[in-house]
Design goal:
heterodimer, A: mainly alpha, three-stranded antiparallel sheet, flat, B: alpha+beta, eight-stranded antiparallel sheet, two-stranded antiparallel sheet, 10 strands, 46% helix, 17% strand, globular, binds zinc ion
């Protein structure tokens, strides 16, 4: 299953934007970190120096606006060796993608969003999607909307002390929530 | 009966319309990073529902190169699909012609080909098939980028709409180049030729949408249809201009082409295409009678090298033998009527 965003291995909360890779005595170690954890680990000496960071998959423009990020690297955008940058999900090299125009997996699009954005702009003029969406996503969105509507009604019923109606609404919510667990395992 | 045995709307200038939906499953890497075992899993998921609908399954890993090329010549598969290394499958239905290719350039490509100009109808057929598979599978999708495809050029709707045009008068008036660059600004592309591997254009062009992101399906379909109608108007104008000139030179050329087509003993692909173009224009101008557009479309596809070779009882061993076979096929079909 492809995760839609990759989480930082350290805090497991924020999105990983820094991918650290080092080779020591012929063994390689790699970490996916958020900017904040990467800063901390470097201060504590866990990871060695900025030059062993092989690159950032974050949008270079957002990196520019992130002071901490900029400080951390000591230079604004690290020009990484593209051959060494691999998609954390499918393992396809950024260089290969830029070379033959074939993206390795859905996750590549978020992992390489910064690097691919000039290409997407030249292809599609910076537009965002309009039109059809997958029916499962559509159903999921409808269910989320319905759930929030039912919860509002439930609150209202409780404050108005209509307990019979509240009980009915609670049952309805429970049924919907169970459905969600059944097939709510995808993107978005 | 396949798309090339029939005619549709605006068939004096449009051979066929091809609409394709490109989709991928969220749970697997795209074909370029896909291992054979995963590819087989995808085939297991997507083939059976289509086979249940009556689609014929053609396992591309098992068929000969010439058979694969023949499907490309019929526009049911792309050249890139035919050259995929791992497990890949074509599922085919006729009338309306729907070709579903699995694990080629994307996990799933649903293509409907209709004779003549009919983008919306073709889209409706392709969408029907998509609905069969959509609910059962988690498709790779991003709210901003739309359907995620192996090629970033297909992001968004993942919709490709193309129309095969026959524009002999415009091609001769040499304004195709400026037309093509104008179309580029509208997010469309115009390329000469009938599919890959045919070098001479002979008045055949393919108009298709380049932009897939930011425009919705209806806008893309309407854009291609409207621009096609505008191009057809200009082609019609150019044909009217031809008619005003002393017709005998053109009539002579077309009549000669018709005569060669009907009686030559050897016809190369290249020569056939040239004659095809003359005769097709001749029908539109009322110079050629007794030959139909659908017969010519049939010949165009069935005269292609691989399809022609496959149709023979004994495989033609030389170029010469193939040219002889092509001439024979052409005459057999034209005399049937
Ligand atoms: Zn973190
Ligand atoms: Zn990837």
């Amino acid at each position: 299953m492809i995760k839609s965003t990759m989480l930082c291995e350290q805090c497991k909360k924020r999105t990983a934007t820094v991918f650290y890779n080092e080779k020591l005595n012929g063994r390689s170690r790699s970490l996916s970190l958020c900017g904040e954890c990467a800063s901390k680990l470097r201060e504590s000496g866990e990871i060695r120096d900025v030059t062993s960071m092989i690159g950032s998959f974050a949008d270079p423009f957002s990196a520019l606006q992130d002071e901490r990020f900029g400080d951390f690297f000591g230079l604004r955008i690290l020009r990484a060796k593209e051959e060494k940058i691999l998609c954390p999900c499918c393992g396809r090299a950024l260089a290969a993608i830029l070379n033959d125009g074939k993206v390795g997996c859905a996750e590549c699009y978020s992992a390489f969003s910064g690097e691919l954005s000039p290409l997407l702009r030249s292809l599609h003029g910076g537009a965002t999607h309009r039109g059809r969406i997958p029916s499962r996503l559509l159903a999921r969105r409808a269910r989320i909307e319905q759930l929030s509507r039912l919860r509002e009604e439930l609150q209202k019923a409780i404050t108005e002390e209509k307990f019979e109606e509240a009980a009915r609404l609670r049952d309805e919510i429970r049924v919907l929530e169970e459905q969600k667990e059944g097939n709510g395992n995808g993107l978005v | 009966m396949a798309w090339y045995n029939d005619r549709g709307k605006a068939s004096e200038s449009v051979l066929c319309t091809k609409v394709q939906l490109r989709r991928n499953l969220g749970a697997y890497p795209f074909p370029v990073s896909l291992e054979a075992a995963s590819a087989n899993e995808i085939l297991q998921k997507l083939s059976p529902p289509l086979e249940a609908l009556g689609f014929r399954k053609i396992n591309f890993s098992d068929i000969s190169a010439i058979m694969a090329t023949s499907y490309v010549e019929k526009h049911y598969a792309s050249p890139a699909f035919a050259s995929v290394g791992g497990p890949h499958v074509l599922l085919l239905q006729e009338k309306p012609d729907i070709a579903v290719t699995l694990c080629g350039e994307d996990h799933l490509r649903i293509c409907c080909i209709l004779p003549g100009l009919d983008p919306k109808e073709a889209f409706a057929h392709a969408s029907e098939i998509e609905r069969v598979l959509d609910g059962e599978n988690e498709l790779a999708f991003d709210p901003d980028l739309g359907y995620l495809t192996q090629s970033p050029a297909d992001l968004g709707t993942g919709l490709s709409v193309s129309v095969m045009l026959f524009l002999p008068a415009l091609a001769e008036s040499l304004c195709i180049g400026s037309l093509a660059s104008h179309l580029g600004k509208l997010g469309l592309s115009l390329r000469g030729g009938f599919g890959e591997g045919v070098s001479t254009s002979c008045g055949l062009f393919e108009l298709s949408n380049r932009v897939t992101l930011g425009k919705d399906e209806n806008e893309i379909l309407s854009l291609v249809e409207e621009v096609t109608l505008q191009i057809l108007e200009r082609e019609e104008e150019a044909r009217r201009a031809i008619r005003k000139e002393p017709l005998d030179r053109l009539t002579d050329r077309i009549r000669r082409s018709e005569a060669i087509l009907k009686s030559a003993l050897l016809l190369s692909s290249e020569e056939f295409l040239r004659l095809f173009a003359d005769v097709r224009l001749g029908i539109a101008l009322g110079i050629v009678r007794g030959i139909t557009y659908e017969q010519l479309s049939t010949l165009l596809v069935e005269g292609m090298p691989a399809t022609l070779t496959l149709s023979a009882d004994t495989t033609p061993r030389s170029e010469h033998a193939r040219d002889a076979l092509r001439a024979k096929r052409v005459q057999a079909l034209l005399h049937e009527a």
